[in-house]
Amino acid sequence: MKRNFDKILLGLLWLMTVALATTFWMNIKYGFDIFSAAHWEYLSGLQARQAHVKPEFYISLVCAISVAVVGLYLLVRPRFRKIQIQPQNAPQQIPTTPTPTSNVSGQSDMGMVRPRSPISGSAQKIKKAPISQPQQQLPTPTQRIEAPQPKNIPQNNLAKEITSVFESNGYLIKPCTRIGKLNEPILALGYNQTLWVGASDTSVEIMQQSIQTLLTVFEDTLGDTANDLTVHGCIINPSDTENTDPDLISTFSSTAEFSQYMNQNKNVKPDDFDKDLFDAISTYISTVANYIGKE
Fold first, then answer.
1. Residues 228, 193: contact at Cβ < 8 Å?
2. For 207-246, how does the pLDDT look when each residue is reduced to its tens digit (9 = 90+)?
3. Residues 6 or more apart in contact with residue 198 via CB below 8 angstroms
4. Distances in Å between the alpha carbon of 149 and those of 22, 67, 168, 209?
5. Measured between alpha carbons, how far is 194 from 267 in angstroms, rounded to an integer?
6. CA 93 from chain center: how many Å?
7. How far is 183 from 202, CA to CA, in rounded Å?
8. CA end-to-end span of the chain, whole Å?
9. How many whole angstroms separate alpha carbon 203 and alpha carbon 251?
10. pLDDT (tens digit, 9 = 90+) per residue, 127-180?
């Protein structure tokens, strides 16, 4: 409703501007006042008598009307946002080397190991291990594939309770494994394009860093459209007692206090709710959550 009211005011302002500009031009060029009934009556009399009227007079009126109509259309026409999602880079496959096996046929200790053939199918030479040096045990494929786990990441012990509170108040939950140092955050999307980041047993500083990570991704992928998204954090049982940014992050001592707060901030559809736009944002948030969780 607010957007429609703004468009009506802009349309009226545009029409008034064109009318004033047209009046100024017609007065100085032809001495004709478009707001004067007497002037229009005089013009109709000239047309009835088939008197000669300069063609430029009619051209000026047609141009003024065309500018007014085109400008009014550009102001009030619906705008559809195009959300571009950058494709994710496919993870590179880590080559694995099989563990060399011992010679069971009674041959010498010179074990021959044949590595896997490359994708191109070209043949490889068989390399023999030198006798004088002992063979080093190669890591198994499982050991080579395992990625180092991040350290000192606080666990979200109340993830299920936070999810239940968001869902009971109408928010749409977006799964996410990790945002920076924030483990298993709960992302809840509202109809008014507000994204809540819920966690427990963590610090305000870690939550601030996680929200900044989200905002950076939004700005890099959406540009100016990212300003339409609002991110707000909430922490249950924070590890620090001081909240340096209460406008951005809300802290609660218990789940009951958090539930009472969310009951007062339910997810309600606005009057100008756009389902297609909300579905596009929902898909975008899911993609971002999946991308950040794999970093």
1. yes
2. 999 999 999 998 888 888 888 889 999 999 888 878 888 8
3. 162, 163, 166, 185, 186, 187, 188, 233, 234, 235, 236
4. 70, 63, 33, 19
5. 9
6. 29
7. 9
8. 41
9. 10
10. 444 444 444 454 444 444 444 444 455 566 788 899 999 999 999 998 888 888
**Three-state secondary structure call for residue 35:** coil
Phi-psi region of 154 (alpha: psi -120 to 50; beta: other; left: phi over 0): beta
Nearest to 233 by CA among 274, 185, 291: 185
Q: 97-108 pLDDT, tens per residue? A: 454 444 444 444
The strand pair at 230-236 and 249-252 is best described as parallel
Identify the H or E element spanning 168.
helix 159-168
What integer best gives the mean pLDDT of the chain?
76
Q: What are phi and psi of 165, to 5 degrees?
A: -65, -45
Tokens of 199: 């966690």
Q: pTM surpassing 0.85? A: no
Per-residue pLDDT, 1: 59
Quick one: three-class SS letters along 74-135? HHHCCCCCCCCCCCCCCCCCCCCCCCCCCCCCCCCCCCEECCCCCCCCCCCCCEECCCCCCC
Q: Are the C-beta atoms of residues 185 and 285 closer than 8 Å to each other?
A: no
Nearest to 252 by CA among 266, 234, 265: 234
CB 165 within 8 A of CB 199: no
| 121, 125, 131, 133: CA torsion to nearest 10 | -60
Which range has the worst mean pLDDT, 9-13, 171-175, 188-192?
9-13
Token readout for 162 is 């936070």
